[in-house]
Amino acid sequence: MQRVLSTHLFLNHRLHPGLLELAERSGAQAVEIFAARQHFDYTSREHVAELAEWFRSNSLEPFSMHAPMYPDREMGRAGAPGVNVLHPDKARRIDAMDEIKRALESAEHIPICNMVMHLGERNDGWSQRTIEFALTALEHLGAFARPLGVRLLVENLLSEAATPEHLVLTLEIGHLDNVGVCLDLGHANITVGTTAAIATLGARIASVHVHDNHGLRDEHLWPGDGTIEWPETVKALKALASPPATVLEISYSLSETHAEMQARIEKAFGLFK
């Protein structure tokens, strides 16, 4: 199982080569770049070029990118609307797809293989309309991503629109065999349970967001600091025909030094040996 570190861990900092070097020293084979403008400004030619040059000279791979969740530099705290491809307003859906395409354009320089994206936000329900909106977005963005060598991965969320079962149905209805799934274990722990989610999503799972919580809210804790049953979860993942990449997606803590982060990253990856 490929070891991938999400740069979500450094979300409050500008992504720079020093942080990528920390990921590499911690045992990561690859990273998932979190596309938030205050962290990775995918609209900045200079920032994209800086990271592209680093990747060309180092063995750490840019395995994936997490699609933008907000179009601003404050994660929506100043009132910017979320990036929502299922929004009832057509203009909002178009704006959301345009923002994701802006992030995808960085794949012209940084050779990411996968784009993890959300279908909607927490309060989005499940209906024929949301299925239609989801299929339109996936077909449109897939056509944009394919020439760049990028595969779309949809993530299970806390909403009805993006449960494991509904993700599978959406992809089956659209015959979207070229779209994979990023299984978020934290979201699964709050909803259907991790092993049930693995059983439902099965061979579609291409990557796994690894973090923990107490089953009530999305805390993005280090594995073992919450209530996920890690031995049975790891066993179920290893039983898949093609073991997915494990993407450690942790929230940044001001109390942790880089040395402490490195030790905890190494320990978390050790769960999957």
Q: Give the total of domains.
A: 1
Look at the helices and sheets and give the structural class.
alpha/beta
Tell me the major beta sheet: 8 strands, parallel, barrel
- CATH-defined architecture: Alpha-Beta Barrel
- What sequence of helices (H) and strands (E) makes up the elements? EHEHEHEHEHEHHEHEH
Silhouette: globular
CATH topology: TIM Barrel
Name the CATH superfamily assignment.
Divalent-metal-dependent TIM barrel enzymes
Count the helices. How many? 9
Q: Given this structure, which CATH class is correct?
A: Alpha Beta
| Contiguous runs where pLDDT drops below 50 for at least 5 residues | none
Strand order of the largest sheet: 1-2-3-4-5-6-7-8
Mean pLDDT: 96
Strand content: 5-15%
The total count of strands amounts to 8
Q: Which labels suit this protein?
A:
single chain, 273 residues, alpha/beta, TIM Barrel, eight-stranded parallel beta barrel, 9 helices
What would you say this structure looks like, in words?
- The structure is a single chain.
- The protein is α/β, with parallel strands linked by helices and 273 residues long.
- It has a single domain, classed as Alpha-Beta Barrel (TIM Barrel), CATH 3.20.20.150.
- Helix content is 37%, strand content 14%.
- It is built from 9 helices and 8 strands.
- Strands 1-2-3-4-5-6-7-8 form an 8-stranded parallel β-barrel, surrounded by 5 helices.
- Strand 7 (205-210), helix 8 and strand 8 form a beta-alpha-beta unit.
- Helix 3 (90-104) runs parallel beside helix 4 (128-145) and helix 5 runs parallel beside helix 7 (194-201).
- The termini are close together.
- The model has no long low-confidence stretch (mean pLDDT 96).
